[in-house]
Give the backbone structure.
Amino acid sequence: MATTAPAFIAPVQELAPAEPRWRSVTRRFLKHKLAVAGLATLLLLAIAVYVGPLVSPYAFDGNDLTQTGHWWPSLQHWLGTDELGRDVLTRLLYAGRISMTVGLIVALLSVLLGTLVGAFAGYFGSWVDAVSMRLVDVIQSVPLLMLLMVLVAFLGHDLRIIVLVIALTSWTGVARLVRGEILALKGQEFVEAAHAVGVGSMGQIFRHLIPNALAPVFVSATLGVADAITLESALSFLGVGIQPPIPSWGNLLTDAQQYLVMTPWLAFYPGLLIFLTVASINFVGDGLRDALDPKLKQ
Amino acid sequence: MTRYLARRLLTAVPLLIGISALLFILMNQVPGGPLAVYGANPHMHAADRARLIHAMGLDLPIHMRYFKWLLAAVQGDLGHSIFTGRPVLEMIAERTPNTLVLMGLSTVVSLVVGIALGVYSAIKPYSKFDYAATTASFLGYSLPTFWFGIMLMMVFAAKLHWLPAGGMHSLGQEGNWVDGLSYLVLPVTVLSIVSVASWSRFMRSSMLEVLRADFIRTARAKGQTERVVIGYHALRNALLPVVTVVMMAMPGLFGGAVMTETIFAWPGIGRLFYDSMGKSDYPVMMGVLMISAVLVVVFNLLADVLYSVVDPRIQME
Amino acid sequence: MHRTPGPWRAVLALTLACSCLAGCAQANAHVSRRNASDTVVVRSQQEPDKLNPTLTNAISAVDVGTPIFNGLVGVDDQMHLYPDLLTALPTPENGMVKLEGKGMAVTYHLRPGVRFHDGVPLTSHDVWFVWKMHMDPKVLVSSRDGYDKITRIDTPDPLTAVVHFKEPYAPYLGLFSLPNDPILPAHLLEKSADINLDGFNRAPVGTGPFKFKEWVAGDHVGLVANPDYFGGAPKLQKLYFKFIPDDNAAYIQLANGDIDVYADFNLEQLQPAKEQRTFRVSIVPSMSYEQISFNLEKPLFKERAVRVALAHAINKDEMSRTIYKGIWPVAHSTEHPLSWSYNPKLGEPCPYDPAKARQLLDAAGWKVGPDGVRVKNGQRLSFTINSTAGRKIREQAELVLQGYFKAIGAEMKIQNVEGGLLFAGYPTGLLQGGKYEAALFAYSTSIDPAANISNWHTRMIPPEGQNTFRFRDPEMDRILDRGNLELRQKDRQPLYWRMTEILDREMPTIPLVYWTETHGMNRHLHGFKANPTSSRFVWNVKDWYVDSTEEQP
């Protein structure tokens, strides 16, 4: 093998995402109508929640007891005001910013952690694999929401802690996935070849193995954002999530629940936005899955 | 096979002990603890607190408490609830049937609908039906259960008065199953709509794979009707992997649905956990979580065994 | 594909949900009572843990326990004490309360002919047993307050109990009584191996107007009338307590006639409730009040001017009108206006006056800094308030307070924590451990002001008591000690009036509003008279009756 060293450089480079592949992925993604619709919705929502509060004439925490009781939409308050006279639309958008940011950061953290653990477990095997997979088992053996409730009760309700806790419990799927991919790739020629020419373990893991396992990781990262948004809102709904006065879609929904028999539409808005966001992300994720890995498309 | 099983069971023991130690320590370190329910009661003095802490056994060091708990637990005694004074097992046992009814029915409904959708989609892939079913099931999957549950309750209980707003049966109607069913409609609807998607997607791809297989072509070549080919040969084989996935989903049924049970006042395990959490009733929380964990381990093992039974190509190593 | 596939039903339901939502709030007058005319169903938010009021702190357990048990002394809805299991209230005037040496003796004469639900007669031995049970170190009784002052109980005959105290104990009439210390059947519990785990706690036997019938876990507790009740048979035959955690579900069930009483009606549901024709809402005063506590050991709050200025900055009227829906009235005192300890001559100590607040702070050397927050000697006028997370109404109050304080140049940060952390014992708890600056929560006052000793006496600074304010005042200590020793109300009243004056001057706490108890009930239910004390709405349940023959309005 060593004598044919130059020959195996080629496959490694070929596997790096090249321009033509990128284009074909885009082409396939664009053919997935629902995914495109999801992406468009998502972009609109993102612009709304990140730009909206900036252009709104109201502050998300600007309570004004003279403005209470405007339940119905008006020119001044497009979706009315809440029990403290705050503009409902501004709060919805600001809450969306929090929820989406939480979703993005959690997905990023959990994918990062999951990829690392999965890659190391898959590459090194033996006790590294055993320990990390047992850890995965531990986390997966306890009902997720219950585990989250216990962890939050233990650590507190700070926004950063909520993010961290959700991330700490949601990396296991990615870890399993990456481990499987790495195990499959490890036996392949280009990896053995890289090993033969003296590429160190870290080099192999980070330059050859992980990049080649990225497609499914990318998909699960996308779906992870949706899961994180749902989990955060579920925690907030149970009263153990992000605490007011910081609004999130979850705690806006809990707030609105107080007024359910009087103003049910207040509960309708945040739930609808969670639903739209999560559904859009799921469609985008589905589109990405089909686009990135044509084999999966059946 | 026996050796494999034995080894798997043996590795499960340290796993369960690890989980229990972790959870026990976490729960017992939650600030506040069981005495917090007494709030700022002006009649309680330092001596009262000290007396209660001692009587509840909370003054022992944490590792001692854990070993006491573990020693009893391996003998099948999960202790007594701090607040009700009843055996934890008894409290869990009386909630289990309720949870199983709710979760079982939801699973059956979502499985039946999911499999039907998946099969139809696979027979006519990329048809209008396929797209519609996929879209709809994805939308269902994306619904936040708590919100959806509240909305359904507002419409069907508050506005239309068609269905009860929560609970398990009307007073004095404990044996009346028609009455019982009316209480199940809303929570089961919520829980099954959300999980139809995963079943239908799984069934669709499994079915598609089978339909491309050689033996299906052979069956068709032998002139068997499409009904037999799909209804018998294809469906049977496509269902095999589904069985494994169903197995994996089983332990989740025990834990119930914290959200749905809370919204619809369903007296199941999920709500038992939620209520105990609010009072820091550790023994009950530990009991629920550990039984869940044991079930996960057992059913994962069962799934593996079952998989090797239905698919002899899989070797147990 | 002619049949509608499952997921479409979801979409359909969702569409339906959207289109109906706006109309949901409307009243529905078609539904009337669903339950039989001899049955009443009460909503209980939580499931009780034990039906032995002595061993629990849960309100739900007390609510269910009250119809089953009796105490020696009862409290009516006008906050008057009456003899319940007694023939007369023991007082110094009628000679049943006597000083003896350094201590005192109280003679209780039991009502003759009272039987427990199992037929065994009530005797003075049962009174003795309640005391013994409180003092048993193994029994999980939350407080021994008062019982720990008893040296012995003589039972010269089955209907007489003479209780000897080691020192005069003014609030003696609160002992051996509901909500927490009813008379329990000694013959059933005396021989119990472990009272905490005894089956009695799930199937209690008392002397009350209702007998325990069943407890369906997670669903309801059922009681039936006790025809032999000493106060006359109740008018209802069955009384159910149904566990419904969610307020919206409770509202819907009350409107639909599935339940007859929805206790502790959510304030936010009062507006739509006005349009309901199936039920009405009763609003009665409650003994609790919402307040801000200051930790006087924190440098900022050592300064009286700061506390008083903050009190002047709060527009309590506006808060009462908006956040508390005009239902919770403004509070000026830690004592309740219904109590004899309330001094009607004292007005509001710090009326809303932001100008005066600014003036006070200016005079005390607090200068407005560049960011609008006052500064003195390098210290900013900035503090954090803690409250219980998940209590909507508190979160709202905090936001409004934040605005009031900002207007006078004080910055208040909000940090809400789990109730467990706020109220945990010394040293973990934020209050007990002194790990807070300011806190917003409610105090429940007792019918007797003696309990104030735990809040304001220097000796009661944690870990000993509940003086989480770390309030130190020698005159206050003397007053409180005296108040526990004087036996006659006319001697005690000036003491507690003086206590209020000191608190008004020092402002360790700013009372905001008194709570009210709001209960929704089916319009056919009569005889409901809610009680401001912790005997709550169930105290007169034997007089409740249903008249469904009346015309619908």
Remarks:
- Confidence is low (pLDDT under 50) at residues 1-18 of chain A.
- The two ends of chain A are 38 Å apart (CA to CA).
- Residues 119 and 210 of chain A are 7 Å apart (CA to CA).
- The first helix of chain A runs from residue 9 to 15.
